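User: I'm writing a short report section on ligand binding and want a predicted complex to refer to. Could you take this sequence and NAP and write out the structure as tokens? A short remark afterwards would be nice.
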Amino acid sequence: MKPAVGLIGLGLMGKPMGANLLKAGFPLTVWNRTRAKTEDLARQGAKVAGSPREAAASSDVLLTIVSDPPALEEILWGASGALEGLRRGSIYIDSSTVAPSLARRIAKACAERGVEFLDAPVTGGTWGAEKGELVFMVGGSAETLKHVEPVLGAMGKRWFHLGPHGAGQTVKLAMNMILALQVDALAEALALVTSAGVAPERLVEVMQSSMARSPLLDIKAPMILARNYAPSFPLRLMHKDLGLALDLANQLGVPLPATAVAREIYNAVKGSAKEDLDYAAVARFWQKA
Ligand SMILES: NC(=O)c1ccc[n+]([C@@H]2O[C@H](COP(=O)([O-])OP(=O)(O)OC[C@H]3O[C@@H](n4cnc5c(N)ncnc54)[C@H](OP(=O)(O)O)[C@@H]3O)[C@@H](O)[C@H]2O)c1
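Assistant: Sure. The structure tokens for the complex follow:
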């Protein structure tokens, strides 16, 4: 019999992940702060819990995917929080992107309750979440990971066991540094050629035939050229991840100069935007000028 899964957080990522769990036949209970966002999954067969605690209590495997560390702390330790609902012997997986230190704190709280924890942030974006092709970066026990592989397999195509608790989050932050810097570099280069009177599309054409080609270019270059920044991976979340990477680097005494500058550019765009934007909107830093 398939384990009962609980899912907390039905944002851009959580909702399609939930739909894929239902498609794969897992009994699913969901909770989201804004209840209206549970309606689609309820129509597809999910039960809706009244609180994070209730969602946790009904689950053999609990999965959370919320915005940031304060959101995760709220659903775990806030009123009717999930931690107090987790059953002894159950497994809790967090797929939000948060600080590795928070992942270790959660692991400790889970261990005190006889619950196995995995930090398992994801990469692959909303399209990966929709297609069930996410990649999980996992910290925690390899044996626990083995137990939940069928659950991860309903939402993703690969998972990497990277070490003890926090290792998944560490690699995730490093991954997002690379993506943020790549898009920032693309935006700078497009600004240069445009100012020099060359059509920006021509740079993208050349890049597609060069070492600079990447799947990221396929997705983000058309958004920048069309100035269409409907959020897929919101800039506010990339800004959060760059901050988390810099915090970790400060703790470890590792200099990240390029990331520090990029974070300020993302910060400037975030500060001036009124709407929710994709992180490709970092190009607005030059487009406005
Ligand atoms: N989008 C991507 O492409 C992508 C890719 C990889 C990883 N991630 C990571 O995945 C996580 C979720 O991303 P997303 O794109 O799904 O974000 P999102 O669309 O902004 O959704 C955020 C979710 O967190 C909930 N939330 C926020 N603050 C809360 C609070 N104080 N208490 C309870 N719930 C709260 C929101 O509830 P409401 O509905 O009530 O606002 C919503 O369910 C983030 O950590 C992000 O960095 C995202």
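A remark for your report: The longest strand covers residues 156-163. The chain has two domains: 5-163, 170-287.
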